[in-house]
Amino acid sequence: MTVVSSKEFIANDDKYFDMALNNELIIQRGDNMFIVQNYFPNGEPDMIFEPDEDFYRSITMNELLVGINEDLDKFFAKNE
């Protein structure tokens, strides 16, 4: 793990991005710390996260818009 200041990172960003391919990198700016991690250590990922039950319960944007439109129609029908 390498910790660098934000000024050092900005001055040598290529160096530190290359370093982040193999190591965890922490950029410190004042009291804040930002972690730069390589999420694909073995090349291209098939999938970053495995789907879980929340994923399978999700809806598409179109389904959301249909539901919103139905709710708006009901709301305005009540207030007429």
Characterize the overall form: elongated
Strands of the largest sheet, in order across it?
1-2-3
Order of helices and strands: EHHEEHH
Helix content: 40-55%
Question: What is the rounded distance between the termini?
Answer: 63 Å
Number of strands: 3
Largest sheet geometry: 3 strands, mixed
Q: How many distinct folded domains?
A: 1
For the CA atoms, what is the radius of gyration? 23 Å
Strand content: 15-25%
Q: Give the helix tally.
A: 4
Round the mean pLDDT to the nearest integer and report it: 79
Tell me what you see in this structure:
It is a single chain. The chain has 80 residues and is an alpha+beta fold. It has one domain. A 3-stranded mixed β-sheet has the order 1-2-3. A hairpin with a 2-residue loop joins strand 2 and strand 3. The longest helix has 18 residues. It is elongated.
In short:
This protein is an alpha+beta fold and 80 residues long.
Topology, please?
Layout: E1 2-5, H1 6-11, H2 13-20, E2 25-29, E3 32-36, H3 53-57, H4 61-78
Parallel strand pairs: 1-2
Antiparallel strand pairs: 2-3
Supply database-style keywords:
80 residues; alpha+beta; 3-stranded mixed beta sheet
